[in-house]
Amino acid sequence: MRNALRYLFLATTVVALAAFGSGAAIATTILKPNVDAVATITPSAGQEVGIAAPVTIRFANPVADRDRAERLVDIRATEPLPGAFSWSSDRELTWTPTSFLPARAPISVQVGNARTEFRTNAGVVADADMSAHTFTVSIGGALARSVPASMGKPGYETPTGTFPVLEKFRSVVFDSRTIGIPLSSPEGYVINGEYAERLTWGGVFVHSAPWSVDSQGNANVSHGCINLAPDDAAWYYETVGVGDPVTVHW
């Protein structure tokens, strides 16, 4: 048909075939935006992280087909590693390992054509026992240190579960308003803290707490954080890596 246009839609391209009176055809390929293009992957290439580190993938464009995007993700050591997916936005996907990653191992991440590789450390694993008021650290499966601790008091209990260290701070300001406690409240505070490791985005940290040393090992008196003596907190800060797990339990 004279001047007729016929379009064939592929996954990533549009091919237009234009038919002319002579019967000849000219094919033109028009690239469509790759909706699965990857902007960043963390941990970044060459980074060393703990054995509970999640992998976060940020796509360059909003992802409409989340199931398809998840199927593009391959995370492995020597074999594929089991994990669970969650979305924090239409561009950001997080993979959390089902169990701990192998220690001292290269971990490869492939998302479509994007690929990176990071490494795990020896595995610094902490156990916070709220009944015994202890904080116990093992490295590579061997006990390294067990110290007195104080966790969240009634009404401000430390959440239970296993949490990877998200961030580390040599110094930080703790402001009760960030966890919903006004300064006008008897529970309100603004405190300069040291040797702190964030466990949740909601404000739970492991940190130095010289003000609660007398309670550490005996009672839970914090607003949800794990309190350690200054020397113990400094040692843990120097020892732990981002991505290392802390398990909190009764």
TrEMBL record:
Statement: the UniProt record of this protein carries the keyword Transport: no
Keyword Acyltransferase part of the UniProt annotation: yes
Protein name: L,D-transpeptidase
Biological source species: Nocardia vinacea
Pathway: Cell wall biogenesis; peptidoglycan biosynthesis
Keywords: Acyltransferase, Cell shape, Cell wall biogenesis/degradation, Peptidoglycan synthesis, Signal, Transferase
UniProt-listed CDD domains: LDT_IgD_like_1, YkuD_like
Highest taxon of the lineage: Bacteria
Signal peptide: 1-27
SUPFAM superfamilies xref list: L,D-transpeptidase catalytic domain-like
Active site: 207 (proton donor/acceptor), 225 (nucleophile)
L,D-TPase catalytic domain segment(s): 124-249
